[in-house]
Amino acid sequence: MNKADRPFDIVVYGSTGYTGRLVAEYLTEHYADRDDAPNWAMAGRSADKLAEVRDLVGAPVDTPLVVANADDPASLKAMCEQARVVLTTVGPYTLYGEPLVAACVEAGTDYCDLSGEPTWMYQMIEKYSDAARASGARICFSSGFDSVPFDLGVLMLQKEAKARFGKPATRVKGRVRGMQGGPSGGTVASMKETMKAVAKNPKLISVLQSSFGLTEGFVGPKQPSGMIPEYDKDLGKWAAPFVMATINTKNVHRTNFLLGHPYGEDFVYDEMMLTSAGEMGEKAAKAIGEMMANPFGAKPPAPGEGPTKEERENGFYDVVFVGETTDGEKINYGVKGRYDPGYGSTSRMIAETAIALNHSDAPGGIGTPGSFVGEALVDRLEENAEISFAVED
Question: Of 355, 319, 323, 351, nearest to 337 (Cα)?
């Protein structure tokens, strides 16, 4: 079936899971009775559970339900052939992701996920890039908090730098000024599976360690590790390691790579989390550095668990990007979001990424939100998801 003639703009695969339910709830509540509402369906392993979640989130009783399972390639094929975009929250992707990627590539169906698993992403890029380009499938990893605010924050800073200075900022620092929200069991499981994959295949260690692990042969200049607490003179505060920097830096460099290096081939980027000024800030930064060996504590949440509704609604994040050109010209750019970053806001981000892919004319391949939908996604997030992007003078 021609892609344009398929019945569903979006199929939410994993609708009965923690994050998938939030995506279904967002599409139900935010796009009810809107002229631009996508035609969407809920998908998962059990028709009964899908119906239960449909009723739980208040979706219309005629919302289509699609039964599909990663262990059943025929069901995945049938699902992909009905959709223009498959949005998947079924992780860890290292365990469950490849069959769906393969099915989408074969069907020429666009795909977006929440993967923060760089070793798996590297393997998928290596295995399916040529086929995705040939079929026209746009495979878009990391469409949630990792790494949309960071990927698009740098993209928009560079647009402003070029407008103001006629050149990109070759040095950009991503600094988390504030963040409130807890991890889900899915995030914890994903990190564990990445570590297992590296243990089985030591060749993947270099992918994990390098900021250029996802740039397919391109290696730029040496990058800061971001793992040693330091005093940030530009912002007047201490900075500590940021747990998501490992995946975000790779995606920022991949966007630059895929777009033909608009940030320059000498682009340098790192991410850290700000504490405060003075001795207390230094102590806090060093304490966070020590916690990085076990960032989720002694009793991390189990798969299917995550922040409560109240915690999601009270969450937020505030990130600043500090850019500097080769001539020393500086620019600050801020990205701020309402809701818990990993789930309340992530469910909105991936939903809007899927909708943006429906309107994109980018060629097929394996890319990033920044390379596939870029500014169009920024516009959607500002309009619909309570995320702001702005220069800070």
Answer: 319
How far is residue 361's CA from residue 341's CA, in Å, rounded to a whole number? 29
State pLDDT tens for residues 341-391.
Answer: 988 999 999 999 999 999 999 999 999 999 999 999 999 999 999 999 999
The rounded distance, in Å, linking the Cα atoms of 204 and 190 is 16
Q: What is the Cα–Cα distance from 249 to 207, expressed in whole angstroms?
A: 12
Nearest C-alpha neighbor of 112 from the set 388, 338, 382, 360: 360
Q: In what order do the strands lie in the sheet containing 365-367?
A: 65-67, 40-44, 8-13, 83-88, 110-112, 138-140, 365-367
Predicted confidence band of residue 125 (pLDDT cuts 50, 70, 90):
very high
Question: Which DSSP category does 299 fall into?
Answer: S
pLDDT digits (tens, 9 = 90+) for 159-192: 999 999 999 999 999 999 999 986 556 666 777 7
Which residue shows structure tokens 């297992």? 196
Say whether pLDDT at 204 is over 90.
Answer: no
Q: What letters, b where the CB count within 10 A reaches 16 and e where it falls short, cover 117-149? A: bbbbbbbbbeebbebbeebbbbbbbbbbbbbbb
Of 96, 261, 246, the closest CA to residue 186 belongs to 96
pTM, whole model, 2 decimals? Answer: 0.94
How far apart are the C-alpha atoms of 271 and 81, rounded to whole Å?
39
Helical ranges in 259-322 per DSSP H: 278-291, 309-314
